Each structure stands twice: as structure tokens, then as C-alpha cells.
TrEMBL record:
This is Patatin-like phospholipase family protein. Residues 46-219 form the PNPLA domain. SUPFAM superfamilies: FabD/lysophospholipase-like. InterPro entries: Acyl_Trfase/lysoPLipase (IPR016035), NTE (IPR050301), PNPLA_dom (IPR002641). The active site is at 79 (nucleophile), 206 (proton acceptor). Pfam families: Patatin. Keywords: Hydrolase, Lipid degradation, Lipid metabolism. It comes from Roseibium porphyridii. It comes from the Bacteria. PROSITE patterns: PNPLA (PS51635). Gene3D superfamilies: Cytosolic phospholipase A2 catalytic domain. A motif (GXSXG) lies at residues 77-81.
Length: 313
């Protein structure tokens, strides 16, 4: 039986799961630096993919940008990538994003106190079995997100594109204006766990079903593109049978990884980084410090790849 705590953790992840292993792609690889001879306008656009707990590997990338003193012309994010991208575009530094997420997932008592809504709202406003899904993502994110999140897209420091899926038309929706929190909630609305979000008359669910690593929606007119894919490039051979929740979320991951592979077969970003976090499971939120440490090599891959692009301009 799936425990309520497991459901809450899956919801907080707000990202589609992955059971695949991940291997770093060296930034100086010729397969990454495509069309390098075609000089582009100074700047780059960044895609942050979805991937449940594994998407914490985006945090060293955010820190790397701060260390290099650069900022993307825009970010496109799916699911957990939309969450972290929203934090960063709101003006939080990579270090602050690390502190916020590590604090949330290493102080378990504080996390569960937040989840039990001590702000006057009732538990049923968050957790209700009669809704289309068990948990309201907007209430959840209002509860656990930092106060520094921008209210609207127009308040962000640079453009942000958030990917969601239109449930009824089975098509991609790119959200880039209006209220920010509902857009992030829509991009993260994993079926059965998080309630679909209605925006402008469209019923939206997790964006990973249409575009797990959305480098193809980035502004490419004169700019380089950089993508951080956490859906996996290597499959880690685990021991024993996965739990019911891992099987459930992991089954989505198979589709997500296939979608990314299909997109890469048609076109590639100028730099593709796949952090080496394959030994971690999708629900390893409380292992965030170990996961971040494992993802550190991706920071250097990103720095080398981005520096090569910008220096070639």
C-alpha cells in the first residue's frame, strides 16, 4: 500500500520520474558543439528538464552560471525544471536555490509541519480523494515554495517558458505569461497524484508527457542553446523489485526517455549535459545532499561547454 508520506514526497517532487542512469556528456565533444562555425549573437538559452528528485542536478548548473557571471536570455523548463527555473528567474541565486531545497528536504520535521498546513487552511484543501487527483498542486506549492517566487511572468528577471500538456487535445502548451504559480503547478501535475490545472479554459497536466527536456522551444534566433537532460542515458541495474510507487512513476520515465531520444535524433542543442546521477532513485529526495555531490562533475562540463560557445562568438 502506498503511504501518504510517499504520495506527498512524489507530489513535492512535482516532476516526472525516471529510473534510468545518467552519464555526463563532455562539453568539448564534437557531438555537442554543432554548427560552431556559425557565429551567433552573444548569449545562450537554457532548457531544464523534468526528472523528480534527479532534477536537483540542475542546481549545480544554476550555480555555475553565477560563478561564470552569465545569465541566459531565457529558460525553458518542464516539471521540476520549471520549478527550479522559476526560482532562478525570480532572482534567487544558484546558492540560494541550493539552500532552499536542501533545507526543505533535510529538515523532515519542518517539511511535514508545512505539509500539514498550519496557516489556517484545512487538510482537505490539499489532500482530497474525491478530486480528479489526490493533491492540489497549487495549495501544495503555496505551502512549500519560498516567499521569493515571482507572482507573474512579467515580474521575472528574464523570460521563462513553462511546458505543460493539454489533456484533451493531447498537445504541448507553452506558458509564458500570466500568473507563475499555476503555470508551474500545471507543468508538474503528475496524473493521479496532482490535480490537473485549468488555465485559459485548457485542462493541463505534467509537461513531461510531451516535452521532458524542452530545448526545442528555446529562442534560437541568433542564440546558442544549452540543455540539461535528467531523464537518463544509462540504465542502472537495481536490486530486487521496485516499490509500487517507483514502478508507477518509473513507467512514465520510459516514455520520457524515449521522447528525448527521438528529439535528439532529429536535432540537438549546442551543448547537452546529462549529469552522472544514475545510481539515485526517483524518490531519493532525502538524499539531496548526496545527489548534489554526485552531480558536481556536470557543473564543470557545463562551464567548459558554455565557455567554448561564448568564446567562439
Amino acid at each position: 500500500m502506498i503511504q501518504r508520506r510517499d504520495l506527498m514526497l512524489a507530489a513535492v517532487s512535482a516532476g516526472t520520474g525516471t529510473l534510468t542512469g545518467i552519464k555526463p556528456v563532455k562539453a568539448d565533444s564534437s557531438s555537442q558543439l554543432v554548427n560552431e562555425t556559425n557565429r551567433k549573437t552573444e548569449g545562450f538559452a537554457l532548457a531544464l528538464g523534468g526528472g523528480a528528485a534527479k532534477a536537483f542536478a540542475h542546481i549545480p548548473i544554476l550555480e555555475a552560471m553565477d560563478e561564470l557571471g552569465v545569465q541566459p536570455v531565457e529558460i525553458a523548463g518542464t516539471s521540476m525544471g520549471a520549478i527550479l527555473g522559476g526560482f532562478y528567474a525570480s532572482g534567487m541565486s544558484g546558492k540560494e536555490v541550493r539552500e532552499i531545497t536542501v533545507d526543505l528536504f533535510t529538515r523532515k520535521t519542518q517539511l511535514f509541519q508545512k505539509l500539514f498546513l498550519n496557516d489556517g487552511r484545512t487538510w482537505t484543501s490539499l489532500f482530497n480523494v474525491v478530486r480528479p487527483a489526490i493533491i492540489d498542486p497549487i495549495v501544495l506549492f503555496e505551502t512549500v515554495f519560498p516567499a521569493g517566487l515571482a507572482s507573474n511572468f512579467s515580474d521575472l528577471q528574464f523570460p521563462l517558458k513553462i511546458i505543460a500538456t493539454d489533456f484533451y487535445t493531447q498537445s504541448q502548451v507553452v506558458l509564458s505569461e500570466g500568473e507563475l504559480l499555476p503555470a508551474i503547478a500545471a507543468s508538474s501535475a503528475l496524473p493521479m497524484l496532482l490535480t490537473p490545472v485549468e488555465i485559459n479554459g485548457r485542462v493541463l497536466i505534467d509537461g513531461g508527457f510531451v516535452n521532458p527536456t524542452p530545448f526545442d522551444v528555446l529562442q534560437t534566433d541568433g542564440y546558442h542553446t544549452v540543455a540539461i537532460d535528467v531523464t537518463g542515458s544509462e540504465f542502472d541495474q537495481g536490486k530486487g523489485l521496485p516499490s509500487g510507487l517507483e514502478t508507477w512513476i518509473g513507467s512514465f520515465s520510459i516514455t520520457l526517455h524515449s521522447l528525448v531520444a527521438a528529439k535528439l535524433a532529429c536535432s540537438k542543442p549546442d551543448v547537452l549535459i546529462e549529469p552522472p546521477i544514475g545510481r539515485f532513485k526517483t524518490m531519493d529526495f532525502f538524499k539531496i545532499e548526496d545527489l548534489l555531490q554526485a552531480a558536481e562533475p556536470a557543473k564543470e562540463d557545463f562551464k567548459r561547454g558554455l565557455s567554448a560557445l561564448l568564446n567562439a562568438q
